[in-house]
Design goal:
Elements: E1 4-7, H1 16-30, E2 35-37, E3 44-48, H2 52-62, E4 71-73, H3 77-80, H4 89-98, E5 103-108, H5 115-118, E6 123-127, H6 132-141, E7 145-146, H7 161-168, E8 174-177, E9 188-191, E10 198-201, H8 207-214, E11 218-219, E12 248-253, H9 256-272, E13 277-281, E14 293-296, H10 303-320, E15 324-328, H11 336-346, E16 351-353
Parallel strand pairs: 1-8, 2-8, 4-6, 5-9, 10-11, 12-15, 12-16, 13-14, 13-15
Antiparallel strand pairs: 2-3, 3-7, 4-7, 5-6, 9-10
Helix pairs in contact: 1-6, 10-11
The structure holds threonylcarbamoyladenylate (TXA) and magnesium ion (MG).
Magnesium ion binds next to loops.
Catalytic activity: L-threonine + hydrogencarbonate + ATP = L-threonylcarbamoyladenylate + diphosphate + H2O
Main location: cytoplasm
InterPro entries: DHBP_synth_RibB-like_a/b_dom (IPR017945), Sua5-like_dom (IPR006070), Sua5/YwlC_C (IPR038385), Sua5_C (IPR005145), T(6)A37_SUA5 (IPR010923), TC-AMP_synthase_SUA5 (IPR050156)
Length: 354
């Protein structure tokens, strides 16, 4: 299969040519095919969420286990109603506060949504993205669009069309290239089927923001550390070793000076043994490091820059053939919770405190 890559500017004012591209993409979705498209979080791999056969193609293209459910993306509130059997009070509050935007809500599903989309669960994940390309594509398709991140299962999520191309060329009909995404980590997932909402995955809608909107919010243990064999995370996707670079990644946490010292020591050790070593630093500490492949992940003082660059940097280290990577850690409040969740998982929870 030839994968078409079409550029569509992400500003929202589409030219006649871009409109034609979007219509072509929507047509593919309507006919049961796959289209990758930008969202404000990461690139998604879209299919008609109501078409079980189309959903199956997503699992095949990604090499994803089929018990891992998909998020249905909608363009507006009218799109939500038919997918759910009930909209709990907290769901309304959160949707009003954060949609369109980087938040996914888990609802009890309606009969319309096939089990092939929800991995056999009787709940459905729904998100209303804010990205203009995503919204227009969903609107033109006229159906909810099931879309996991558009990476091969186990690889870092794609934040640029080129990343999607690396993983999906020849496996899907089309990639809409809207340039680099804004946020860079996947949406916050909140289960609102229970009395007290439960955060299943941290993202750019932070715990602090959720608290402000609905008060008490619990946190699924799968977010906090490795999932023990007996424990079943509520978001099935959280049990897989996700976001993994090819290299062995270790996080070093603690006081800045000590962290820099320890990373330099660890890197020097592996360099001496002849390995290719990557170092993930920040703009603030860039000058402290010498040997190895030293890359800044962003400005420590602006955590949104860190989230933005995270996955692209992990992919860059793969391309460079890094065998060991040492990364500075980050505070776990606000967006830092999402950053540390993704980095810890990429590190297989190898975290060194100094
Ligand atoms: O930002 C995002 O959410 C991106 C963009 C494309 O929208 N999508 C994304 O999808 O990250 P994916 O498939 O990579 O991650 C979806 C996560 C998985 O961990 C999955 O297990 C969980 O959502 N999930 C989906 N449906 C669920 C359900 N009914 N109950 C619990 N967890 C669910
Ligand atoms: Mg994913």
């Amino acid at each position: 299969m030839d994968t078409k890559v079409l550029k569509v500017s992400d500003e929202g004012n589409f030219t006649a040519k871009e409109k034609k591209y979007l219509e072509e993409a929507a047509e593919i979705l309507k006919n049961g095919g796959l289209v990758a498209f930008p969202t404000e979080t990461v690139y998604g791999l879209g299919a008609n969420a109501l078409d079980e056969k189309a959903a199956r193609k997503i699992y095949e293209a990604k090499g994803r286990p089929s018990d891992n459910p998909l998020i249905a993306h909608v363009a507006d509130f009218e799109g939500l109603r038919p997918l759910v059997s009930r909209i709990p009070e907290n769901g309304i509050k959160l949707a009003k506060a954060f949609w369109p935007g980087p938040m996914t809500l888990i609802f009890p599903k309606s009969d319309l949504v096939p089990l092939g989309t929800t991995g056999g669960l009787d709940t459905v994940a729904v998100r209303m993205p804010s990205d203009p390309v995503a919204r227009e594509l969903i609107r033109l398709a006229g159906v909810p669009v099931a879309a996991p991140s558009a990476n091969t299962s186990g690889r870092p999520s794609p934040t640029r069309a080129e990343h999607v191309f690396q993983d999906m060329n020849g496996r899907i009909e089309m990639i809409l290239d809207g340039g680099p995404v804004g946020i860079g980590v996947e949406s916050t997932i909140v289960d609102v089927t229970e009395e007290i909402p439960v955060m299943l995955r941290p993202g750019a809608v932070t715990m602090e923001m959720l608290h402000e909107a609905v008060g008490e919010v619990r946190i699924d243990p799968a977010i906090l550390g490795p999932v023990s064999p007996g424990l079943k995370p509520k978001a099935p996707g959280m049990k897989y070793r996700h976001y993994a670079p090819n290299a062995d990644l270790t996080l070093v946490e603690g006081e800045e000076e000590k962290v820099v010292c320890e990373i330099k020591r660890l890197a020097a050790e592996k360099l001496k043994e002849g390995y290719k070593v990557g170092i993930i630093c920040t703009d603030e500490t860039r000058e402290c490091y010498g040997g190895g492949l030293v890359r800044s992940i962003g400005e420590r003082a602006k955590e949104e820059t860190v989230a933005h660059n995270l996955y692209a940097l992990l992919r860059e280290f793969d391309d460079l053939g890094a065998q060991y990577i040492y990364s500075e850690g980050f505070p776990e409040d606000h967006l830092g919770q999402a950053i540390m969740n993704r980095l810890s998982k990429a590190a297989g929870y190898r975290i060194q405190k100094v």
